[in-house]
Q: What sequence folds into this?
C-alpha cells in the first residue's frame, strides 16, 4: 500500500483503510478484541512499525499475517 492516499497520517489509519477495502482480511489481521494479532507483522519501508507510527508520503507498508505450514 502506498502512502499519501486521502489524508491517512498513521499506520493504523492506513491499516483501517486496507481492512475497509478488503473486509475478509480483517479476521486474519485482528483478534476478537480488534487488536492486531500477535503473529501479524507490519513493516514500513522494511522496518517494523506500530499503529501510531507516522505514514509519510512515498513509503510502502507491508502486512504479513500468520502463515501456517506443516509436514506433508
A:
Amino acid at each position: 500500500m502506498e502512502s499519501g492516499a486521502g489524508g491517512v497520517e498513521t499506520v493504523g489509519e492506513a491499516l483501517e483503510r486496507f481492512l475497509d477495502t478488503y473486509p475478509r482480511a480483517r479476521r486474519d489481521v485482528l483478534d476478537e478484541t480488534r487488536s492486531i494479532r500477535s503473529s501479524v507483522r507490519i513493516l514500513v519501508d522494511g522496518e517494523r512499525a506500530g499503529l501510531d507510527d507516522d505514514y509519510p508520503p512515498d513509503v510502502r507498508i507491508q502486512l504479513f499475517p500468520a502463515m501456517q505450514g506443516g509436514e506433508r
Notes: Strands lie at 41-44, 47-48, 61-64. The mean pLDDT is 85. The first helix runs from residue 11 to 21.
